[in-house]
Predict the structure.
Amino acid sequence: DAGVTQSPTHLIKTRGQHVTLRCSPISGHKSVSWYQQVLGQGPQFIFQYYEKEERGRGNFPDRFSARQFPNYSSELNVNALLLGDSALYLCASSLPRGTDTQYFGPGTRLTVL
Amino acid sequence: LAKTTQPISMDSYEGQEVNITCSHNNIATNDYITWYQQFPSQGPRFIIQGYKTKVTNEVASLFIPADRKSSTLSLPRVSLSDTAVYYCLVGDRATGGFKTIFGAGTRLFVKA
């Protein structure tokens, strides 16, 4: 079975640019969540989407946005990049069973110069 | 919002049993307790999940007392490859959405 996939693997941007990260969930999973993980810290929740609707949002500025497509894949967009946005961005998918077990992808390493 | 507290780091030797305890005093009735393992530059990997008493799978056991205010992840006979960060999470259902809160985790170092 294919796990959660994310693209690209690595990305280098400069301040002020925009970035789009992509995620494909495990087949059959309808919920996708996004996390930001800064080096040395635990993942921080950004968004959760279920059935193409936003179900939860963490404490991130409006520069961060996301969407989920009919095939349940998802995109995370970050505008006006800052140096502090450099991090590992993780996508996780889950079944809507109410037990919150999430399966994570390998992440996208974003470096902002 | 339910939060968790874990030791920052732990050391062990190969072949030993490792127990990592997590405190979650504000756990809600419907919340589950989930543990993840993370290696550097990889996404967290699900280890085990439970609601109460004891859960065991092929890699770990999870012990949850009756008051559910803490839980203990038990890793039997650890090896060098078990060196990783271990996160304890409590399922949180904020009004209008879902949030999963990771703490700083416990960095386990397994020595030869």
